[in-house]
Design a protein that fits this description.
Layout lengths: L1 H8 L5 H10 L16 H9 L1 H5 L6 E8 L25 E8 L8
Antiparallel strand pairs: 1-2
């Protein structure tokens, strides 16, 4: 970015100067939201407009899934300088998935 600004505007900034400028301008580094390269805005709008007709006669269900397993979730711990904390952890990749779907109108589930 520093090089680009120098080339485009003829202004030089140090790393700290650029950081300060971006903070003053309230610019933040963000991760972009991915979209499919073949996304068709018109087709999406048609789907939204015709959704009631498309959904007619269908059943509403709520679905959830969970993965249950033995992988230890380790976090940070406080320790004095020079001491490496040892945390016993299970590294087996044994897990299973749980699924459940419920029809909110009938209470039926599967």
């Amino acid at each position: 970015m520093i090089e680009w600004i120098k080339e485009k505007y003829g202004v030089e900034y140090s790393k700290q100067g650029m950081s300060d400028l971006l903070k003053r301008l309230k610019v933040k580094k963000k991760v972009g939201r991915p979209i499919h390269p073949k996304k068709d805005e018109k087709q999406e709008e048609r789907f939204k407009e015709n959704f009631k007709e498309i959904a007619k006669g269908s059943k509403n269900i709520f679905f959830d899934e969970a993965r249950v397993g033995l992988i230890t979730d380790t976090g940070e711990v406080w320790t004095t300088r020079g001491i490496k904390p040892i945390i016993k952890a299970i590294f087996d990749r044994k897990y299973t998935y749980l699924y459940k779907a419920v029809n909110p109108i009938t209470g039926g589930s599967f």
